[in-house]
Amino acid sequence: MKGLVVITGASSGFGAAAARAYARLGHPLFLGARRMERLREVAAECEKLGSPRAVAHPLDVRDKESIDAFCQAGGTPEILLNNAGGALGRDRVDKLRDEDLIGMIEANVIGLVRVTRALLPAMIAAKKGHIVNLGSYAAHGTYEGGSVYAASKTAVRVISETLRLELSGTNIRVTEMDPGLAETEFSVVRLGDVEKAKAVYAGFQPLTAEDVAEAIVWCTTRPPHVNINLMVLTPTAQASLTKVHREQK
Ligand code: NDP
Ligand code: 8X3
């Protein structure tokens, strides 16, 4: 039997695509997110695709009690995909809204650490496992309006590096997955507007959720002695955080 894959933020985007990809490989799945209807749909689809058991469980990574309940209800992950989170707003520092500042740090940093902390002891006892943390290309620089988002993803990078040190000798692998522009619900959530979100990806071919899911699965299916520390993947049209080649219509 394939090992359990636990995915935070599996109701859309990378998390849902990764759930489907692991389902096709026959893994049992324990999936978390806030939008339960969407999450249940993903879980049902995963069972049709080949997962022997796909459980949808409520999770708000900004809420410690919710995290503890989620982690207690799931089993010991063979693969933990710390994916839940995103960006809130694109305001400059002088205009930054408190709720966005706190929201990004709580979800992208504190939530990721709390989930990892709750699941790690069982993974260490099992002497195997793989943690994949969703960072971002934004952990490799910054851009106007990206201060706290980039800072939160830089924190993911530092936490991933620290985990590799702390888990040395446990057989647990840690991968930081850093995609560039990918068209998911990310920009709709960030900008709160479907048209503005579409404009982010206008004139070039962005990454898809499936591109990123495939990269995640590739990292976790290397032989046990191989750890992919960091993967940065961008659309071919994205040369840097601020330079994207767009075809004019
Ligand atoms: P989506 O908005 O499509 O998916 C985000 C997922 O995270 C959803 O399932 C959402 O579920 C979940 N989520 C958000 N907040 C919470 C919360 N408080 N508690 C539990 N779940 C939460 O975006 P992506 O798939 O693109 O993003 C996934 C990750 O990848 C994020 O960490 C993002 O920062 C990162 N990333 C995205 C890139 C992009 O360009 N798209 C590039 C690089 C990194 P729900 O709302 O139902 O709770
Ligand atoms: C999302 C990628 O470039 O919008 O993490 O910050 S970017």
List the helices and strands and how they pair.
Blueprint: E1 5-8, H1 13-24, E2 29-33, H2 36-49, E3 54-58, H3 64-73, E4 79-82, H4 98-126, E5 129-134, H5 147-166, E6 172-179, H6 186-191, H7 194-200, H8 209-220, E7 230-233
Parallel strand pairs: 1-2, 1-4, 2-3, 4-5, 5-6, 6-7
NADPH dihydro-nicotinamide-adenine-dinucleotide phosphate binds next to α1 and α6.
Q: What does this molecule look like?
A:
By secondary structure, the chain is an alpha/beta fold. It has one domain (about 5-235): NAD(P)-binding Rossmann-like Domain (Rossmann fold), CATH 3.40.50.720. It contains eight helices and seven strands; from the N terminus they run E-H-E-H-E-H-E-H-E-H-E-H-H-H-E. It has a seven-stranded parallel beta sheet, sandwiched between helices. Helix 1 runs parallel beside helix 2 (about 35-50) and helix 4 (about 100-125) packs parallel to helix 5 (about 145-165). The longest helix has 29 residues, at about 100-125. It starts with a strand and ends in a 16-residue tail after the last strand. 2-hydroxyethylsulfonic acid (8X3) binds near residues 136 and 181.
Keywords for this entry:
249 residues; alpha/beta; Rossmann fold; 7 strands; 44% helix; globular; binds NADPH dihydro-nicotinamide-adenine-dinucleotide phosphate; binds 2-hydroxyethylsulfonic acid
